[in-house]
Design goal:
This protein is mainly α. The protein is built from eleven helices and no strands.
Length: 236
């Protein structure tokens, strides 16, 4: 019975992966609006009803693709950071940001799925949240570790937080487990995260064409400017 169950589980996992692979290819070819279980079933050569045992709806399949995309991005960023010296927070920041851009360039349709236009009629369920938070938590974790190690400097010329924003930052820090991070550092890090993803999105969707002749140089400068704003400094 155990061997039979293992075979069935393996077969189910393989067929589930095949469904998702075809769905990802269709996303690239026709866009998310055209994604349907019927279209996937047609390419698989099976009745669409056969897919309902794996994904009860188009939205369930879409959710699986979104979780996979966030997971792949999180894996890439965390792996890049792990290769750098634990106490070199600036290099770890740079590595995480470069990994985000590299993955986006290699997987533009998956990136667009999670960071592009919202899918009409689709509301992402809670099961996507943990995967979606991996990269922002990674960046916040770098800021927290650098702060705890006394390796963050206070940048000059940064405006103070308003009372409302400071209160919201404190609440966010408590909710996310980063309550040891000063409100100002948390807000600067979140701001830096939005800039890094903004630069990635603008490049990927062609909005920087004609502005800079070297997208890599612009992205690198953006990453370092944001690192400076957060307060990272070169250990040397």
């Amino acid at each position: 019975m155990t061997a039979t169950r293992t075979f069935r589980e393996r077969a189910r996992a393989e067929f589930t992966q095949e469904i998702k692979d075809i769905a990802r290819r269709q996303l690239a070819e026709t866009g998310v609006a055209a994604l349907s279980l019927r279209a996937v079933a047609r390419e698989l050569g099976v009745a669409s009803s056969a897919l309902y045992r794996y994904f009860p709806s188009r939205d369930a399949l879409l959710t699986a693709l979104i979780v996979d995309a966030f997971t792949a991005l999180g894996d890439r960023a965390e792996s890049a950071v792990a290769k750098e010296a634990p106490d070199d927070f600036l290099r770890r920041w740079r590595a995480a940001c470069r990994a985000v851009r590299a993955w986006a360039r290699e997987s533009p349709h998956e990136y667009a799925l999670v960071y592009g236009s919202p899918v009409p009629g689709y509301a992402a369920p809670e099961e996507t949240i943990a995967a979606a938070l991996r990269v922002p938590y990674l960046l916040l974790g770098l800021a927290r570790d650098a702060w705890n190690a006394g390796r963050l400097v206070e940048p000059t010329g940064v405006p103070e937080l308003s009372g409302d924003l400071a209160e919201q930052a404190s609440r966010l820090a408590a909710l996310t487990g980063f309550d040891g991070l000063p409100d100002t550092v948390l807000v600067r890090t979140v701001t830096a995260w939005t800039q890094v993803f903004g630069a990635t999105s603008l490049e990927l969707f062609g909005h920087l064409k004609g502005a800079f002749t070297d997208d890599t140089a612009f992205f690198t400068a953006s990453v370092d400017l944001m690192a400076s704003m957060v307060g990272f400094r070169d250990p040397s």
